[in-house]
């Protein structure tokens, strides 16, 4: 799922439904939204859906694992957006 910088957001093909035109957006604050199938949420929700785990498991994964190991290269982009200084404080999984 290659994401491309587009203004203040990242854009790419949605991993949750088949599409040819990117309608999956990742925002610097660590939130994602797909305008194709309507799925959206924060990075914890992303892990929940992507890895098909429960909320506590998703939090644990994010806490105990480097971002780029959570769900492969795809989420690295999400984490990259989150570790951006402007979004770093907003993830909040450690609080
Ligand atoms: Zn979608």
Word description of this protein:
The chain has four helices and five strands. By secondary structure, the chain is an alpha+beta fold. The chain has a single domain (3-89), classed as Zinc finger, CHC2-typedomain (DNA Primase, Chain A, Alpha-Beta Complex), CATH 3.90.580. It has a five-stranded antiparallel sheet. α1 crosses α2. The structure holds zinc ion. Zinc ion binds at residues 14, 16-17, 24, 34, 36-37, 39.
Strand percent estimate: 15-25%
Number of strands: 5
Radius of gyration: 12 Å
Report, as a whole number of angstroms, the end-to-end distance: 29 Å
Q: Give the spatial strand order of the biggest sheet.
A: 1-2-3-4-5
Task: Let me know the largest β-sheet.
Answer: 5 strands, antiparallel
CATH top level class name? Alpha Beta
- Helix/strand/pairing category: alpha+beta
Q: What hetero molecules are bound to the protein chains? A: zinc ion
Overall outline:
globular
């Amino acid at each position: 799922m290659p994401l491309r910088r587009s203004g203040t957001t990242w854009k790419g093909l949605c991993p949750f439904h088949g599409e040819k035109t990117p309608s999956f957006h990742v925002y610097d604050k660590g939130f994602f939204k797909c305008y194709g199938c309507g799925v959206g949420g924060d990075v914890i929700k992303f892990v929940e859906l992507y890895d098909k785990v429960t909320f506590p498991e998703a939090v644990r994964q994010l806490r105990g694992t480097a971002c780029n190991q959570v769900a492969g290269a795809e989420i690295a982009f999400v984490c990259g957006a989150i570790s951006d200084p402007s979004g770093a404080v907003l993830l909040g999984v450690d609080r």
